[in-house]
Design a protein that fits this description.
alpha+beta; 11 strands; 198 residues; five-stranded antiparallel beta sheet
């Protein structure tokens, strides 16, 4: 049975030549590091640093490495970014943002860095808030999930979240599994990264 696949599935279609339904496990895996940029008690920018799995990185390299030198030149990076960004922007790269449990709209993302390092493609997405939300005495929650399970997200195992500037005692981050928000028929449990500020 054929079905439409959004964003990263469209990337899958470009990279893998996929056109049909997704299997019971994802085609793409990405680790995620979140960076919360603050100005005083306001959240000015949310940044996602995505590191794609080796197989996906290799296929993207094969697709966009026009001169076949095993590297991505500035021009090749630009072409890749131009292809990825509109697809990512369609659904905020599957990012759900909450403030004290309420849904918070994300601004349009911008790719600020895209490079290949040791065989892994890294992508940096910045969401800059035109009107930075006040987060004093609040909790910001970020959850990434692709309900079609084309891409599987997991928090960076070494450093899932960073606060900048890191004012001691002002804010802290945590991560928790959310079985109550399981998706793909309840088979996948997402992780919620939270920023809590005094």
């Amino acid at each position: 049975m054929m079905r439409s696949l959004p964003i990263f599935a469209a990337i899958s279609s470009v990279v893998f030549g996929l056109a049909g339904a997704v299997a019971a496990h994802p085609d793409i895996a990405a680790s995620v590091r979140l960076i919360f940029a603050l100005e005083g008690t306001r959240l000015t920018t949310l940044t996602e640093r995505l590191a794609f799995d080796a197989a996906t990185s290799a296929r993207l390299l094969a697709r966009f490495d026009a001169d076949r030198d095993g590297l991505l030149s500035e021009a090749e990076v630009s072409l890749l970014a131009d292809e990825l960004l509109p697809r990512l922007a369609e659904r905020n790269a599957y990012t759900e943002l909450r403030l004290d449990g309420r849904s918070l709209s994300l601004p349009e993302p911008a790719i600020s860095d895209l490079q290949l390092h040791d065989g892994y493609l890294g992508l940096r997405l910045d969401y800059r808030f035109p009107e930075p939300p006040e987060i004093r005495a609040s909790t910001v929650g970020v959850l990434l999930r692709d309900r079609d399970l084309v891409i599987a997200f997991r928090p960076d195992p070494n450093m899932p979240a960073i606060v900048t500037p890191d004012v001691e005692g002002a804010c802290s981050t945590s991560i928790e599994a959310r079985p109550d928000e399981a998706y793909f028929g309840g088979l996948v449990t997402p992780s919620l990264v939270t920023l809590t500020c005094r």
